């Protein structure tokens, strides 16, 4: 549709969700939030989809909440109230999510980047937690950002609102890599290909494992982790993977490209 702000496309097991509201720097307006959430639901419900790529049109990945819509609204009517659902959809997606940035991200846009599993940006991309500079708090996004960032960097960047580049974003844990504009497509394709080799159920369980609190000591976790591991070794997916390895072929879940 010509008036949609989020496009959805599936090719070869990869669902690409594209923010397309360049007139306001892909700000998180009510329409964009709704369409983005619907696209994430669609991708997660489609068995043919193995990996999700979140990207954008225009020079900016996402500028954060739509401040025009926020102006004059009471606390109960702020668009940010709908944002936790989107971050949760990204963070808990059973299918790996890759963020592809050809430009800057700010505030809530960084929250989405942090909620994905893999994030790649061009060298020229910049980032800033600009909330404090307009008198608000990076509260909701802290729940996805803080697990990624080292503590010293988080204190500095949340409190100052200073802009930082892609190189530093990699150093502090926000991005997996930064590349030239010419290399962006290839770098994302490399991650997508690697992720699609994993068993769908194994990937979902591994994502869940990564998000859970660690036991105080390894000994306290061995019983539960052994049960999980043994169950997957004996599962239909695990047995297919083991058989495929022995037969020197691809498992049946690897998409045909």
From TrEMBL:
Give the organism the record lists: Amycolatopsis oliviviridis
This chain's protein is named Enoyl-CoA hydratase
The family this protein is said to belong to: Belongs to the enoyl-CoA hydratase/isomerase family.
Superkingdom in the source lineage: Bacteria
Matching entries from Gene3D superfamilies are given as: 2-enoyl-CoA Hydratase, Chain A, domain 1, Lyase 2-enoyl-coa Hydratase, Chain A, domain 2
A Pfam family per the record: ECH_1
InterPro entries per the record? ClpP/crotonase-like_dom_sf (IPR029045), Enoyl-CoA_hydra/iso (IPR001753), Enoyl-CoA_hydra_C (IPR014748), Enoyl-CoA_Hydratase/Isomerase (IPR051683)
């Amino acid at each position: 549709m010509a008036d949609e702000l989020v496009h959805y496309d599936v090719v070869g097991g990869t669902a690409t969700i594209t923010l397309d509201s360049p007139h306001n720097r892909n700000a998180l307006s009510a329409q964009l939030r709704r369409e983005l959430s619907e696209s994430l639901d669609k991708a997660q419900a489609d068995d043919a989809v193995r990996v999700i790529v979140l990207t954008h049109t225009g020079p900016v990945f996402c500028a954060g909440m739509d401040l025009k819509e926020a102006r004059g609204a009471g606390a109960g009517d702020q668009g940010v109230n709908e944002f936790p659902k989107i971050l949760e959809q990204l963070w808990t997606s059973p299918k790996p999510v890759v963020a592809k940035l050809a430009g800057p991200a700010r505030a809530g846009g960084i929250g989405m980047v942090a909620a994905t599993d893999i994030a790649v940006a061009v060298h020229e991309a910049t980032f800033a937690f600009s909330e404090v500079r307009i008198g608000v708090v990076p509260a909701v996004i802290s729940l996805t950002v803080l697990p990624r960032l080292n503590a010293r960097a988080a204190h500095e960047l949340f409190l100052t609102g200073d802009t930082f580049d892609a190189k530093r974003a990699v150093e502090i844990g926000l991005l997996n890599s930064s590349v030239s504009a010419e290399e962006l497509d290839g770098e994302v394709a490399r991650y997508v290909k690697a992720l699609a080799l994993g068993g769908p159920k194994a990937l979902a369980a591994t994502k869940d494992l990564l998000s859970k609190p660690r036991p105080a000591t390894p000994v306290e976790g061995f019983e539960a982790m052994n049960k999980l591991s043994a169950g997957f070794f004996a599962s239909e997916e695990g047995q297919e993977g083991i058989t495929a390895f022995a037969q020197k072929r691809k498992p049946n879940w690897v998409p045909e490209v």
